[in-house]
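Journal club prep — side note

Before the paper discussion, L.F. wants everyone to see what a predicted structure for a comparable chain looks like in token form. Sequence:
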Amino acid sequence: MCDVLTTIESSPRYRALNIANAAAIILYLASRVDTASRGEQTRLAREIFAKSLSELGEVSGVPQHRLKSFPMVGKRLATSSGLTDVQLNFLTGVFRKATERIQKLQERDSNT
């Protein structure tokens, strides 16, 4: 049984490869895959995630001395989490919606 069936293009002179050569070629090609297509994080996604976390902390009333560490903490959380760009972007969207909602509630409270 096999989980995946693939082919490796070769010249007519080499119609068959031994398993070691085939594995080396497949591993080499896999190592060249772009990180975004593998579902890993980009630096930009981590930075945007950290910024949105900082903004949420600010509108939530986190003390200023703690807010200073939020960008670094956000980047470390993103890096160590193992989340993909898609997952980080989802959380960033949630943070932004929460930030907007808190701001609207604060505006409404200040107008009454």
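L.F.'s comment for the group: The two ends are 70 Å apart (CA to CA). Keep this in mind when we get to the figures.
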